[in-house]
Amino acid sequence: MRFATIRTAQGLRLHVKGSSGYVDLGTATGDASLISINGFLAGGVAALDAARSAAERNGPQFTHKDFAPSTPNPPRVLCLGVNYADHAIEGGRAVPTWPESFVRGSGSVIGAYDDLVKPSLTECFDFEGELAIIIGRGGRYIKADDAYEAIFGYSVMNDGSAREWQRAATQWTPGKNFEGTMPIGPEVVTNDEVDVTDLAITTTLNGQVMQSARTSDMIVSVARAVEYFSSFTTLRPGDVIATGTPGGVGFARTPPVWLLPGDTIEVTVEGIGTITNHVVAEEGAPTNWPWTPSGAKTATI
Q1: CA distance 48 to 16
Q2: Which one, of 38, 40, 33, 32, lies nearest residue 16 by Cα?
Q3: For residues 241 and 230, what is the distance between their CA atoms, to the nearest angstrom?
Q4: Greatest CA span in the chain, whole angstroms?
Q5: Which residues of 89-109 are buried (b: 16+ CB within 10 A; e: fewer)?
Q6: What's the average model confidence in pLDDT over 228-246?
Q7: CA distances (Å), 243 to each of 85, 168, 287, in order?
Q8: Domains identified in the chain and CATH numbers
Q9: What pLDDT, on a 0 to 100 scale, did the predictor assign at position 287?
Q10: Radius of gyration of the chain (CA)
């Protein structure tokens, strides 16, 4: 099944893709708990059965502007960094033998077709096309063999990164959490629709292919990513796991290629979908802000 969170006159509403268009789950079932993805995930098997029934109905089509983030308020976004060997090598790093990980906040999340905001405090705004995992049942100490039972589905995302903020210290958090820098969507696609072990992932900037790889190239696979994060934290319904980006990012190019207002960046994951975002300048930021990392033009990670 395929689910989308749609902006409506009643607010954000979870829809299931029907035989024609998208069906509002709350309206179709009369169950107000199913208007959001978090409420849906709390409903367990009964909610899935209701969604299957609703998916047999017809529903309206929607325009790009109607699509909210596929997971508008994820409890957490748990991220793998340097999870493709070519991305490690292009950054001058050894291929990691232990996962690099960091956390994003929900404030950075935007919709699949929303404007991607270039922060005013970065000159090195970079793209990272990725496959995102959306946790369903979740749990702790989930073995890789059982990981897919804990997963609700998958989306496409762009881990927009302010590189000089990322490299100013040993922790990556600041560079990965500027508001409005992580588009995700357009749908959540469930396991019965797609096998994520070997899918093409492509990022294009203004029509030019910048990243091209397959999910089978990941160092830590989807199943092992669930196993890894559940080692130290209980995965909760609605949590997002970002699986890392392949080589071809902007910082590794000569000269570097940074996202600028007016650019259009697209990320496609085969069988899941495409997100398309126009880059815009941040509005209302103060001038002469005291916190600006030095070396902006030479950021290399």
Answers
A1: 10
A2: 40
A3: 11
A4: 56
A5: ebeeeeeeeebbbbebebebb
A6: 97
A7: 13, 23, 35
A8: 2-66 (no CATH), 77-298 (3.90.850.10)
A9: 85
A10: 19
